[in-house]
């Protein structure tokens, strides 16, 4: 795999560089810069390791961006702030397991999918009453604001309480402030045991979804990026990154 680009944290919105612009290098040539918003608290997709933003979403984007001739600058923020930042043009793209939904596609553009997954219910380890999504009616369910999981919980009749990140949800779930939570089956597969919280996954995986990098519809970044993602599928790089984080190819 090619060497990943160094993730540079954007200091603030005033220092962000729009994708349509370029920055001049020491040699005088111009290179395109993409400012990317990410939660950086959602392992193994996007998180910080020794101060640097990394994860499956980040590794895939870094490799694709390098092949497409882009430099990536990351701006970490709460999940609920990602879409408003994109709307306000403070960032050019979101890399945060953004599910491709018809509602989002009405307003935003998505890259070729780079991850396929689904949702699953999480409860406290001693909870025997909730066995899946059909048991969430009238229950208190934790989620991050604006996520697909919040919408799924509401559709199941749950009372949704919003949190900044998955760890806060699991903490309140463990101590009984919540009845259940919903999350990505890949997060559950790789990270739930590592958290140390006394919780478990129940029921079948449902609502199969694809994740893509999300931009505004007027962005031209995706043309080259999609070509690079397709190339990574063909040469096995995408599968290699999936194996690194999940032990399997999750891109299809």
UniProtKB/TrEMBL annotation:
Molecular function per GO: ligand-gated monoatomic ion channel activity
Its keywords, alphabetically, are: Signal
Q: Which InterPro entries match?
A: Iontro_rcpt_C, SBP_3_CS, Solute-binding_3/MltF_N
Places the protein is found: Cell envelope
| Signal sequence residues | 1-19
Q: Which residues cross the membrane?
A: none
A Pfam family that the UniProt record links to this protein: SBP_bac_3
Could you tell me the superkingdom of the organism this chain comes from? Bacteria
Q: Which part of the chain is the Solute-binding protein family 3/N-terminal domain?
A: 33-249
Every copy of the Ionotropic glutamate receptor C-terminal domain together lies at: 33-248
Family affiliation: Belongs to the bacterial solute-binding protein 3 family.
Name under which the protein is recorded: ABC transporter substrate-binding protein
Question: Organism, per UniProt?
Answer: Exiguobacterium chiriqhucha RW-2
